[in-house]
Amino acid sequence: MKKTRLAAIDIGTNSIRCIVVEVDQQGRFTVLDDEKATVRLGENLGRSGAISPAACGRAVEAISRMRMLIDGFKVSEVEAIATSAIRNASNGRDLVEELSRLLGREIKVISGQEEAELAAISALHNFEMSGKRYVMIDIGGGSVELVTALGSHIEECFSVDLGAVLMTEQFFTSDPIRSSDYQKFRRHVRTVLKKTFSGEKISAQNIIGSGGTITSLGNMVMSMRRQTFSSVHGYEVLRSEVVHLLAMLMRKDLKARRSLPGLNPDRADIIVAGCAVVDELMRFFGANQLRVNERGIREGLIIRTIKRLGLIPDSTPARTWRDSVLEFARSCHYDEPHSRHVASLSLAIFDRLAQENGLKKTERRLLEAAALLHDSGYFIGYTSHHKHSYHLIRHAELFGLTPREREIIAQVARYHRKALPKKKHLEFSKLSEKDQLIVSRLGGILRLADGLDRRRSGLVEVVDLSRCGSTYTFRLSGTEDITVEIFGGNAKRDLFEKAFGGAVVFVTG
Fold it and tell me: Is the predicted pLDDT of residue 314 greater than 60, yes or no?
């Protein structure tokens, strides 16, 4: 199958990013390289009005290196943009001409409106957005882009000069930061937001954010929670955690901030301004949850280029989490009839247990995903395939699922056979008590359902499930003799019985 290699370069106020991807003929792309250079084009820009010679030198060095990277990968299409610092600097035009010459391609200076649109393209590609109101934000060094949307329909795009580098240089001149300067900064942010949204009050329970501030915030909160997910992409942060993190950051000087777990030391000097802007945005929109989009503007560029080349038609239907799970399962050459039947059995059992045991709709989705993917580890080998499934799922790109949800799905799949969950299992022990219970319950259901399809023939249906005292009675029907399937169910009922606190009995007819 013919594949095309594309690159996108985003020249921002704080850093220059270059992403190289390989695209197939269905428009699916794989990241081959993601290079970052912290060049600080916005250094002293607010005071001098021009990009400093030192910052220009760092940009020249970064673009020269990225040119070699792009040429080495034999990239056929390059989209390169420059944003806030280049837009606002008196010498921005001269610098962008020099960088274009070094790159061998035109670098376009784009408006804040176009920045916002690119951030929205990436967010819409990465998150399942229902009919609720959302706000998408991208926090850069010089500006903050804001997009309001109802479901997947964009309403308005805004760009405000509240970037982390700009705000730090304008308001924070002492170390540690003075409380009076911090309060002055807060008042400024609130004034800008009120002026920008001077009309009807916009409320949104969820904000989807991209940019270095957002990913740093997600990584710091992950460290605070003592979690170790494979990626911060899709991670969910609560407003209360942002408030707590800000209070902690304000108590520390620059040296102490540089040693914080989850924070890149290069960002320690601007992180307070960045996180405070996030907090003010969540306060302004009444949002309680922030979801991390690790990709952002440069991915928006890639997606726009793919569409321009006709590899993704504009009318492509919106993806769902189930589409993504099935796509990944097929890439692992899964046994589709068996996996779908196990999923059907699992959901039938779940639905009969849900009300009495307080099982939630979100858990039903996790169970279905785990059932469809439980045998994905066969892709590596039969022996310990349940453990292979765990690792494959944990690192999979699954649309619409958070890192926590992906971890739960991976662990539910891991316990569909062999050992039961134990505190001595490192990955299981890292889960919260609530999530350990979810894994045990969903794992118990999946394990039992898998046993009931022992011959992978789809013979068994769960007609009814009732509980009397401490006994769960499963009434089964089959298209032929299902003695082997009942044997399989009995062999794998152990986790269910432990998780739900009762004995399992199978009857037919």
Answer: no
CATH 3.40.50.80, applies to 4-110: no
Residue 490: predicted pLDDT: 98
Range list of β-strands (E), 60-211: 77-82, 108-109, 133-139, 144-150, 153-160, 206-210
Identify the residue whose tokens are 């958070």.
402
Task: Give CA–CA dist 169/59, Å, rounded.
Answer: 20
- Token pair for residue 103? 């790159």
- Name residue 157's beta-bridge partners: 147
How far, CA to CA in Å, does 502 sit from each of 131, 367, 415, 465? 41, 20, 19, 13
Instruction: Tally the C-alpha atoms within 13 A of residue 487's C-alpha that lie toward its C-beta.
Output: 6
Q: Is the previous residue joined to 176 through a cis bond, with omega within 30 degrees of 0?
A: yes
Q: Which CATH number fits domain 113-298: 3.40.140.10, 3.40.50.1820, 3.30.420.150, 3.30.420.40?
A: 3.30.420.150
- CATH number for the domain formed by residue range(s) 321-508: 1.10.3210.10
Which amino acid type is present at position 2?
K
pTM above 0.90, yes or no: no
Q: 6: part of which helix (H) or strand (E)?
A: strand 4-11
Which residue has tokens 């807060």?
186
Q: pLDDT tens digits, residue range 175-202?
A: 999 999 999 999 999 999 999 998 778 8
Q: How far apart are CA 145 and CA 254, in angstroms?
A: 27
| Whole-angstrom distance, CA of residue 94 vs CA of residue 100 | 10
Average pLDDT, the chain: 94
DSSP letter at 287 equals -
